């Protein structure tokens, strides 16, 4: 076969692999829910793009809307690079079966690089950018300004893509990762701490160079993309058998310092040690854990630069972050252990202590995350300290109880070594409703706070904190109910997870 025929065969078989993925086998209801959520996110991005000109004019009254946007352009793509660093992966699972066949490494590497361009990270920003560019890039600007801005955005997204792919494909990965880290740190240090006006002026001039049709403005990012794609190709050709798409996780035979501390705690220590090892030794769980430190910095900065200056409109979204890592992990409370569920259910384990230890563990993790966030808000947005503290108690109280209680009925076996982002394994209509109810239950509390003879934020903080404290103090009662439900469904779940 020629290289072209091999490439075409790889594309065809890649499409078959995508089409046969497990999430296409879900019910029509789940597919409809997933499509609905995607459409909602795109719609919100489109609306934000329409509102962005007026928001920018309020923040930068002395600039035109497109000039104000170009002044923060590089900040946006630095944030995009940060997200890609944590979430974007190589599509390496597509070539495992070919490594032992007489297929050219150059062809495989070329296919990997071509396939890597078709990902959500390269297009998600355009739902916001296209309506924004359409509304601001008009007369007296050149007629082609809109298309030049689109092309510039494609090139900048391509630069981020090429850098991340190189960092993930280069044999010396730790050293390669330092480049995006330094770019992100440099943007934060110079663009936020040292000289923000100069950095914003440079960003604005770069944007104006693009829409004016300056050739060098387009040649430079294209050259950067070409160089990093060449380096990525070389890196892939020399390191196929080093990474090969394996999901094996390296496990240390000796306990870490933190695990030894957990093991010394009476009653709950061994359960905590097990929980920590489950998180650290599985690809999916540790991938989610690495994203949470960003919240500690990003959440206070988001509220400090809040373009709407109305924190109450985000309160239902705070449910997802106020409880820390536990909010996402406890969606799969018991199905996470489905791979060794027989061991838990068949041994003489103190289930009450097991469930309490799990709750205490994620309560402590949430507390460790929320404390630095609250400390930063004291200096940046002191008016939000008490509402966020109340939200933390609400999430770690009734929301955690709700998730752990419904989690017993999860019907899917979880593979913890699959990726953390855009992983639909374990999703179901019930889980969607659980997340939906937990998020929008805050809206009910906001309605009750409206009738209290207090400021809206103060009333909401009191309601969430009071309800949260009540559930936390009475945790032994609802954990007992969870234990009894667990025992009633034990044999049903044993049969389910063996299937």
Q: What is this structure, in a nutshell?
A:
With 499 residues, the chain is an all-alpha fold.
The sequence of SSEs as H and E is HHHHHHHHHHHHHHHHHHHHHH
Average pLDDT taken over every residue: 82
Percentage of helical residues? over 70%
Radius of gyration: 25 Å
How are the SSEs placed, and which strands pair?
Blueprint: H1 3-19, H2 28-59, H3 65-71, H4 73-87, H5 105-116, H6 126-136, H7 145-169, H8 173-194, H9 196-211, H10 215-243, H11 257-263, H12 269-280, H13 283-291, H14 293-304, H15 315-322, H16 326-329, H17 341-346, H18 351-380, H19 385-407, H20 429-450, H21 456-473, H22 475-498
Commentary on this structure:
The protein has 499 residues and is mainly alpha-helical. It folds into 2 domains: 3-15 and 33-243, no CATH class; 257-497, no CATH class. The chain is 72% helix and 0% strand. It contains 22 helices and no strands. It has helices spanning 3-19, 28-59, 65-71, 73-87, 105-116, 126-136, 145-169, 173-194, 196-211, 215-243, 257-263, 269-280, 283-291, 293-304, 315-322, 326-329, 341-346, 351-380, 385-407, 429-450, 456-473, 475-498. Helix 2 (28-59) crosses helix 3 (65-71), helix 7 packs parallel to helix 10 (215-243) and helix 19 crosses helix 21 (456-473). The longest helix has 32 residues, at 28-59. It is globular, with a radius of gyration of 25 Å. Residues 243-251 have low confidence and may be disordered.
């Amino acid at each position: 076969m020629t290289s072209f025929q091999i490439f075409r065969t790889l594309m065809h078989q890649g499409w078959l692999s995508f089409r046969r993925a497990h999430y296409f086998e879900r019910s029509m209801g789940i597919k409809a829910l997933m499509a609905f959520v995607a459409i909602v996110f795109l719609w919100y991005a489109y609306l934000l793009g329409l509102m962005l000109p007026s928001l920018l004019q309020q923040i930068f009254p002395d600039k035109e809307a497109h000039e104000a946007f170009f002044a923060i352009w590089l900040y946006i793509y630095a944030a995009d690079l940060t997200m890609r660093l944590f979430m974007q992966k190589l599509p390496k699972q597509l070539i495992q079966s070919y490594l032992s066949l007489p297929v050219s490494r150059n062809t495989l590497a070329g296919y990997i690089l071509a396939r890597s361009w078709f990902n959500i990270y390269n297009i998600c920003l355009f739902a916001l950018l296209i309506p924004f560019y359409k509304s601001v890039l008009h007369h007296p600007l050149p007629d082609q300004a809109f298309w030049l801005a689109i092309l510039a955005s494609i090139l900048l997204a391509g630069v981020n893509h090429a850098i991340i792919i190189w960092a993930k494909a280069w044999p010396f990965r730790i050293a390669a990762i330092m480049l995006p880290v330094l770019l992100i740190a440099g943007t934060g240090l110079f663009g936020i701490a040292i000289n923000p006006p100069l950095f914003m002026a440079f960003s604005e001039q770069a944007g104006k160079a693009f829409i004016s049709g300056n050739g060098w403005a387009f040649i430079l990012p294209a050259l950067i993309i070409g160089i990093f794609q060449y380096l990525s190709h070389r890196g892939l050709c020399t390191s196929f058998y080093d990474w090969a798409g394996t999901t094996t996780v390296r496990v240390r035979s000796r306990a870490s310092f933190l695990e030894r501390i957990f093991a010394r705690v009476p009653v709950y220590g061994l359960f905590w040690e097990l929980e920590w090892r489950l998180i650290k030794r599985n690809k999916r769980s540790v991938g989610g854990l690495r994203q949470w430190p960003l919240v500690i910095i990003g959440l206070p900065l988001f509220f400090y630069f809040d373009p709407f200056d109305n924190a109450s409109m985000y309160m239902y979204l705070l449910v997802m972050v106020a409880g820390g890592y536990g909010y996402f992990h406890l969606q799969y409370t018991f199905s996470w252990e489905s791979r060794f569920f027989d061991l838990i259910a068949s041994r003489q384990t103190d289930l009450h202590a097991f469930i309490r230890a799990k709750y205490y563990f994620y309560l402590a993790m949430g507390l460790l995350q929320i404390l630095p966030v609250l400390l930063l808000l004291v200096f940046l947005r002191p008016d939000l300290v008490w509402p966020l503290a109340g939200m933390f108690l609400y999430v770690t109280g009734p929301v955690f109880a709700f998730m752990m209680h419904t989690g017993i009925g999860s019907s899917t076996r979880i593979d913890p070594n699959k990726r953390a982002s855009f992983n639909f394994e374990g999703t179901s209509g019930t889980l969607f409703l659980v997340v939906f109810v937990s998020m929008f239950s805050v809206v009910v509390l906001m309605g009750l706070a409206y009738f209290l003879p207090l400021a809206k934020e103060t009333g909401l903080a009191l309601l969430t904190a009071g309800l949260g404290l009540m559930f936390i103090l009475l945790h032994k009662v609802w954990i007992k109910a969870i234990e009894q439900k667990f025992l009633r469904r034990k044999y049903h779940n044993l049969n389910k997870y063996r299937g």
